[in-house]
Design a protein that fits this description.
Blueprint: H1 3-17, H2 22-27, H3 34-70, H4 80-102, H5 111-134, H6 138-162, H7 164-169, H8 171-190
Helix pairs in contact: 3-4, 3-5, 5-6, 6-8
Length: 192
């Protein structure tokens, strides 16, 4: 087989292996507008996740100076200034994770399930501050945070099947919520 035929054959094999990707469209000479769509999806993903944090903060802000400051807390409780930058960072990671999954088509195996679980965990995340700070109920908040941890774990499993990076990006969030659950449990016990 001559070099040109071998190169042509190799190119065909590579092209067939790239089902429908921007790289295949470039090889076929098609114009790709994926960049604009991706930027839009990234911005929307980041906004959705930050809005979830914002909704939760609406219940935290009124209770923080009075109720939260007056209850007994374990010695491992971080200073108040730590919570905001940590949560903002985690919501950014969540947004990037959502984007990486949304970037795939909905027909890609596992995308719909992964996005469904992502929505479930995000809703549970928004609900926790309502219980803990809004209703001032560490007991019900603890029950809910256990459900949240299970949802985050399942979300990570589903995301890993679609995008390894998307799943990995939620691991710091999982461990932070584990820590928050421990704090929540301790606060419930100290104030029962």
């Amino acid at each position: 087989m001559s070099r040109t035929k071998l190169f042509s054959h190799s190119l065909q094999v590579v092209e067939k292996s790239m089902i429908d990707t921007p790289q295949r469209r470039i090889l076929k000479g098609e114009r790709s507008d994926m960049k604009e769509k991706d930027i839009f999806k990234l911005i929307v993903s980041l906004i959705v996740c930050q809005l979830a944090g914002f909704v939760g903060s609406l219940f935290i802000t009124p209770s923080f100076p009075a109720w939260y400051a007056s209850i007994a807390k374990p010695s491992l409780t971080p200073p108040n200034w730590v919570f905001s930058p940590v949560w903002i960072s985690l919501f950014v990671l969540m947004g990037i994770s959502l984007f990486l999954v949304w970037q795939k088509t909905l027909h890609y195996p596992g995308v719909k399930t992964a996005m469904l679980w992502f929505g479930v965990h995000l809703a549970l995340n928004m609900f926790w501050p309502i219980l803990f700070f809004g209703l001032k109920s560490p007991f019900f908040a603890f029950i809910e945070i256990v459900l949240l941890l299970a949802a985050i774990f399942l979300t990570i499993i589903k995301l890993l099947k679609v995008s390894r990076l998307a799943g990995v990006l939620l691991i710091p969030y999982f461990f932070w919520v584990c820590f928050a659950a421990a704090l929540n449990y301790a606060i419930w016990n100290l104030n029962a």
